[in-house]
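Q: Sequence in, structure out?
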Amino acid sequence: MKVPLLDLKVGYQDIKAEVEAAVLETMRAQAFILGKRVQDFESAIAAYVGVEHAVACASGSDALLLSLMALGVGPGDEVVTTPYSFFATAGCIARLHATPVFADIDPETFNIDPGQLERAMSPRTKAVIPVHLFGQCADMTAIMEICSRRGVPVVEDAAQALGARWRGEAAGAFGACGCFSFYPSKNLGGFGDGGMVTTNDPGLALKLRALRAHGGTRKYTYEHVGMNSRLDAIQAVVLQVKLRRLESYHEGRRRNAEAYRRLFGDAGLTGTVVLPVERAEAFHVYNQFVVRVPDRDRLRDSLKQQGVGTEVYYPLSLHRQPCFEGLGYATGAFPRAEAAERDSLALPVYPELTEEQLTHVVSAIAAFFG
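A: Exactly. Output:
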């Protein structure tokens, strides 16, 4: 039996006719860059997240970069974030010649530890980027209290967490900016790259719209030095179709997560395989289902032989990346993140998985551990 980590083709069948009609209509209209279709999608995302403004851009990485640019982050500034995330989280800080400062994670949720965050802040801290990793919100109650007390804006990296909630409030609605990715593997994935910034600040929204279009609000007149980062209309109509089904996608992923818990329990593996922890305050959307296991790399090889796709998010923490050697962090600086490097493994969790496929995954893991 084959169980890929993600199967986009099976998910496409349900939306094929609607998506192809929307794309064909857009092609006939010959209006591809921003415009009404993108505006309609921005409005839909703003309503879904529960904010006043949503500004579409070319990728989730650009969403982070644009947010920091709009907040005036630059040389001499520090931005505190997690060392256990995709590279873009810290890369956008370095792109602006600011300094990434890292704070270790909570070992149960993989999200930044608020206590470690506060210890990492300094008078030079210009912003904080918590990451809602794998589809579960960081502790935004504690993070917002710390940052509000210090007068430091929060930029939420919610690339994996559209639809996730903390105490009933949506990811992307807490900070000055919320940043989303529509990379194809995300819960709401497009047919290419795409991103979005959400905010309740009208001034920030206006600046973000200028920055994504080279820095101008009028043609050939530029108030800022911006960049070219625009969502095209074809991506917008594809995403609009999928957005109407997003809650059902979440239901499918959460159902599969519960099935895994039952199957691992039935197999007697809960003492060997550490399953994801979902906080009582959180609504987890399971962009990834990440377990922690001994002998991770040999298990991964065994699962590949059994037709099971897996992935390691992330095999090398940000503070140990070659390009960040100059920051001066030694191996061992963030032991929780480094432990997650060694034993974390993402299993298939996409909504179209069958009970037979889930059973095959758990049976293959049980066979490995004997």
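The chain has two domains: 8-243, 246-369.
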